[in-house]
Amino acid sequence: MKTGILGGTFDPIHLGHLIIAETAADQLGLDRVLLMPSYISYFKENRSDSVSSAEDRLAMTRAAAVGNPRFLVSDMEVLRGGKSYTYESLEALHAEDPDDELYYIVGADTVCSMGTWRYPERIFPHCTVVGALRPDQISPENLRTGAAQLEADYGARILFLDVPAIGISSTQIRENVRQGRSIRYLVPDAVEEYIRDRGLYRQD
Predict the structure, then answer these.
(1) Distance (Å, rounded) from C-alpha 93 to C-alpha 60?
(2) Nearest 5 degrees, angle CA 126-CA 134-CA 58?
(3) Which end of the chain, C or N, has fewer beta carbons within 10 A?
């Protein structure tokens, strides 16, 4: 089984995330892609606005995955609680099925910073890192240098995936809701409905 993992805060999950997951499944021949919302991302601790509850973000991710048989939603990090660290999730997935080939999908600009993550030496043995490459993100030279460093330091297996430059962000979506602007065509219809019904991101 070839399994992709796309993690994130998903506050909210949007069409850009889903396009990356679908592109990875197609280009890499993945059997499935796990969409894995974090419980608390240590990258988002200093965000100016509060992060939505894990329950809401998990529910939106499940709504977004409906209708795509290759998309599965993992509640692993939400159930584990606490700060979400990649090495823990990869080790848990590997323990569940050691024969699975795991492909951990990140933005290409993130690849170069993975050496600073918690216990990087426990990340790379369990997965191939897939950098979703948009032409506006990072120079090819910096990318090659960063990837080569991870390969030398940790024996990392890294490949890159060309994805469309969609230009959608969760920050933009939250701001649109706060300002009363449309988020149609930025998120799946079911996610838009959930945000509206739950009153997420609106100003009090």
Answers:
(1) 22
(2) 55
(3) C
- The sign of the dihedral angle between the CA atoms of 149, 45, 162, 62 is positive
- For residue 165, the model assigns a pLDDT of 81
DSSP strands (E only) in 29-97: 32-37, 71-73
Q: How far is CA 181 from CA 52, 172, 203, in A?
A: 19, 10, 13
Q: Structurally, what CATH architecture does the domain formed by 2-164 represent?
A: 3-Layer(aba) Sandwich (3.40)
Largest CA distance in the chain: 50
- Name the residue among 101, 89, 100, 105 with its Cα closest to residue 24: 105
Could you report the per-residue pLDDT of 175-198, keeping only the tens digit for each? 999 999 999 999 999 999 999 999
- Tokens standing for 154? 């940790």
Give 7-63 pLDDT, tens digit per residue: 999 999 999 999 999 999 999 999 999 999 999 866 555 554 689 999 999 999 999
- Domain-wise residue ranges, the chain: 2-164
Which tokens hold the place of 28? 């890499």
Q: What token pair was written down for 176?
A: 């649109």
- What pLDDT is stored for residue 176 in this prediction? 97
Residue 16, classed as helix, strand or coil, is: helix
